[in-house]
Predict the structure.
Amino acid sequence: MVLDECFQVSGDLCKIINNISILREQTESQSLSFGRGQQIMDKQNVPVITLDGPSASGKGTIARLVSQALGFHYLDSGALYRLVALAAMKRNTDVSDEHSMVDIARHLNVSFRDSSIWLEGKDVSDEVRAEACGEYASRIAQYSALRVELLGYQRDFRKSPGLVTDGRDMGSVIFPDATLKIYLTASEEERALRRHKQLMEKGINASIADLIQALRARDERDSSRSTSPLQQCEDACLLDTTGLSIDQVVSRVLNMYAEARKA
Ligand code: DC
């Protein structure tokens, strides 16, 4: 996801990934123990790790690395809202028309291939990450009918041996029985700096002050909507990534997961 470039990755990450392979082996043997010949594990038994939090908190980067370390599937739920918004923009459809957004979502032809995202047979990985797309995604995410439309699609990502997912309502609404729920955040300044670094790397100029304003506005909208607002649910663990490197955060999440599995 976009924030991949926003953190400093140190060599320690390799060490962490090595340690994690132990966890991964345990997970694989655990899934085998559910019964030979049993092809499909009951979805409720498939472990899920949810990472919810505000924009630019690093959810996508961390969720992807944790999923790779554990050999789990990964769902970037924000990409779904972004894809509906992008499809609407491409068709010149009015994003204030809730019914049309639901219709677009219902017939959306998307695929996730490794780290690329495809819409109607075209690689839209960069387009979907554009600021404008995130802004429209946040607006249409307020429509409850659209959220209902995307619910089953998201739950279908829950497959053996496990799922790591990031978004705003993953722990509160989509996977309320998740094994581990994390509310990932960072200071406003640090989130704006990460977004700034990411934009600069793409050759896009932006002022930190403007970015703080934009993040604030988006978080305010995502947190104050009536349907599935961004919130730290009671059973979610708070993880503040301010001042932490990627490998430190990944390592903490994996330790938290190891603890959660023991419980
Ligand atoms: O995580 P992101 O920036 O890609 O998400 C884009 C927008 O989509 C975000 O501002 C709010 C919305 N969203 C949501 O409402 N629920 C989710 N689970 C994920 C994203």
User: Anything to note?
Assistant: The domain at 2-262 is CATH 3.40.50.300 (Rossmann fold). The two ends are 31 Å apart (CA to CA). The pocket of 2'-deoxycytidine-5'-monophosphate is lined by residues 55, 77-78, 81-82, 134, 137-138, 141, 167-170, 218, 222 (CB under 6 Å).
